[in-house]
Amino acid sequence: MNERTVWQFTDDRGQLSATGERPQRVLAYIQAGATLWDHGIRPAGLFGSGHDDPAAPDPAKTGSLPLDGIAYAGAGAALDVDALLRCAPDLVVAVSYGGGQVYGLDPETAKHLEGQLPVVVIDVGQARTLADIGDRFTELARSLGAEEPASATRELDAARARLRALTAGPDRARVLALSPADQEQAYLARPRMWPELRVLADLGVGLIEPAEGPGANWSTTGWTEAAALRPDVVLADIRVNAVPLAELRDNAEWAAVAATARVVPWNPEPVCSAHAHARFLELVADALDSPGTA
């Protein structure tokens, strides 16, 4: 290009984006936008995936991001290039779960979008560690002139140390991560497939591994089978596509689990900042440190 390059960034597809001035108006997938906010970047707009409400962002995914004054382009099949460009972005930050495909956007929509402005894609899939994902967001934020405060790293170090201390003994609590499917079934997370859960395992948390079977990321099972696992702590998916726990109050099997287990809200699409990760680890630590937890 003829103009002088002021900003450039190579994303996780190996694709270089370069512009004559540093981008100022970022349109981001919700998870990416919330992560950038913790690094000091306020997105101009957000978009969701096919699992999200087309009218409003999922609050479970937004972390500490304030939504007032931030445009929401929508989600799902109705999300087209015109909707994405309505907030006049000069950069799009998206995520991928491998293969370089932009998550949440139809491939043709993503292609047309890239024809009009730079699109940076960060891989948040199970092949990456959470630290690797966080590092990539840090690199992107630095390229945009921002950085997460050093205090966030100290928070994360303290949260990690606390979890290690709580899991150092021989008797470890049984922790089950799940997403409520409906009144009859639950999706049990396979811990090795989720970067945030692998961190918990590395810190000594005793995560319950579902039985082998169909489903790469989740094992679909009945609530009776889930209750039979007798977890001490449950990490429960709180995204809008999961059945709210309040709707399971009359489910006898879930009631039996909730009567004895500590329930921790869990967002399987985590905000990938040190601050947000520290908050999650502290919630898990609080649950493990509660009276009655093994």
List the helices and strands and how they pair.
Layout: E1 7-10, E2 16-19, E3 26-29, H1 30-38, E4 45-47, E5 71-72, H2 81-85, E6 91-96, H3 107-114, E7 119-123, H4 130-143, H5 150-166, E8 174-180, E9 185-189, H6 195-202, E10 206-207, E11 218-222, H7 223-228, E12 233-237, H8 252-260, E13 262-266, H9 274-288
Helix pairs in contact: 5-9
Describe this structure in words.
Belongs to the bacterial solute-binding protein 8 family. InterPro entries: ABC_transptr_periplasmic_BD, Bact_iron-sidero_bind. It is found in: Cell envelope. Residues 50-261 form the Fe/B12 periplasmic-binding domain. The protein has 294 residues and is α/β, with parallel strands linked by helices. It has two domains: 7-143, 3-Layer(aba) Sandwich (Rossmann fold), CATH 3.40.50.1980; 150-288, Rossmann fold (3-Layer(aba) Sandwich), CATH 3.40.50.1980. It is 31% helix and 19% strand. The chain has nine helices and 13 strands. It has helices at residues 30-38, 81-85, 107-114, 130-143, 150-166, 195-202, 223-228, 252-260, 274-288; strands at 7-10, 16-19, 26-29, 45-47, 71-72, 91-96, 119-123, 174-180, 185-189, 206-207, 218-222, 233-237, 262-266. The strands form three sheets. Strands 8, 9, 10, 11, 12 and 13 form a six-stranded mixed beta sheet that branches. Strands 5-4-3-6-7 form a five-stranded parallel beta sheet. Strand 1 (7-10) and strand 2 (16-19) form a beta hairpin. The radius of gyration is 20 Å and the shape is globular. The chain starts with 6 loop residues before the first strand and ends in a 6-residue tail after the last helix. The model has no long low-confidence stretch (mean pLDDT 95).
